[in-house]
Write a structure and sequence with these properties.
Blueprint: H1 2-28, E1 33-37, E2 40-43, H2 44-57, H3 66-87, H4 97-110, H5 116-125, H6 130-151, H7 159-168, E3 173-183, H8 188-205, H9 207-214, E4 225-230, H10 236-242, E5 254-256, E6 259-271, H11 277-305, E7 310-312
Antiparallel strand pairs: 1-2, 1-7, 3-4, 3-6, 5-6
Helix pairs in contact: 2-3, 3-6, 6-11, 7-11, 8-9
Length: 313
């Protein structure tokens, strides 16, 4: 009976210690305002929460040291706040739950989870609730909707040319598992300097973590992952660069509207050319549309950022 009593006392002491320890840690984190972006603020707690969010969506970020991870979170929040400010100027329709469900499905499949239940357990274990994720994804969805409405009429696609290419190309095709880094620079000297920093970062932290640090593309949150893309869905300029490099390597900077693009080939495979013509046509058109819309998104973001007051405390 005495031994049992001693065990209970020790257990209670341990629980008290843990409660006191975590309370002390929480008190030690002072919630300071670090940035003010127009009327939007970013606090120290916001950045800590963003690191948790980003690591949950991209587990590879756990390999980054704390200072780099904090910078990634800070940059991510700045982009989100700028987009939020712009979104507030438009009367957008509500983003459908079905659309967000599909986005979330892509996210959890990307990190190797089978279904929504596994994803919910996974995010709960990382102290993130699904409502937070849906809210943050809604900002991106609203932004994409704005870009689509503003620039869709400017997209140029030669549908007849694509049809001819599909009909003429009967051999087997290469499919590439691609990751991207998109960055911009105001002049050639600055572009070279940024590229040198990116190369050093890739050498030290890997391509995916470097995408999270430097890339301005939406794909940065998933380490720059674009997924499997057939050579037929790439424009000639990009395919010519991608086809030159080996698995594990990355291209030289490719000049695109709004900045520069680096592509890494993580894997490749040969696929049969026996395809559904209409499906292939639709896939190619959609791929080219997305490519051009992403470029317009980067250009538009760069433009509106110039009119945003970013005050670092």
């Amino acid at each position: 009976m005495e031994i049992k009593y001693i065990k209970i006392v020790k257990t209670l002491q341990y629980i008290f210690f843990l409660t006191f320890f975590f309370h002390s840690v929480s008190l030690s984190i002072e919630n300071k305002i670090l940035l003010k972006i127009n009327n939007e603020i970013i606090t120290s707690i916001d950045i800590i929460n963003e690191t948790i969010y980003l690591k949950t969506l991209n587990p590879n970020l756990k390999n980054l040291d704390n200072n780099k991870l904090m910078q990634v979170a800070k940059d991510s929040l700045i982009r989100e706040k700028i987009k939020k400010i712009e979104i507030s100027k438009f009367n957008n329709n509500k983003i459908s739950d079905k659309y967000l469900d599909n986005v979330i499905k892509n996210i959890y499949q990307n990190i190797g989870l089978k279904n929504e239940e596994e994803f919910l357990n996974y995010i709960n274990s990382n102290s993130i609730d699904i409502l937070t994720i849906r809210k943050k994804l809604s900002y991106e969805a609203f932004w994409n909707q704005i870009i689509y409405e503003k620039f869709f009429t400017k997209i140029k696609i030669d549908k007849e040319k694509i049809k001819r290419e599909i009909q003429e190309n009967n051999q087997k095709l290469e499919s590439y598992l691609l990751y991207e880094i998109v960055y911009n620079a105001d002049e050639s000297v600055q572009a070279k300097q940024i590229f040198e920093k990116i190369k050093k970062s890739i050498s030290k932290d890997g391509f995916q973590n470097t995408a999270a640090i430097f890339s301005i593309a939406e794909s940065s949150k998933s380490g720059g992952k674009l997924g499997w893309i057939n050579e037929s869905s790439m424009n000639k300029k990009i395919y010519n660069e991608v086809s030159k490099i080996k698995i594990g390597a990355y291209t030289n900077p490719i000049l695109i509207p709004g900045g520069f693009l680096l592509l890494a080939v993580m894997d490749k495979k040969e696929i049969d050319k026996e395809i559904d013509f209409e499906k292939e046509l639709s896939t190619r058109i959609r791929s080219l549309q997305n490519e051009q819309l992403n470029q317009y998104s980067n250009i538009y973001f760069k433009k509106i950022k110039k009119d945003i007051l970013i005050d670092e405390k």
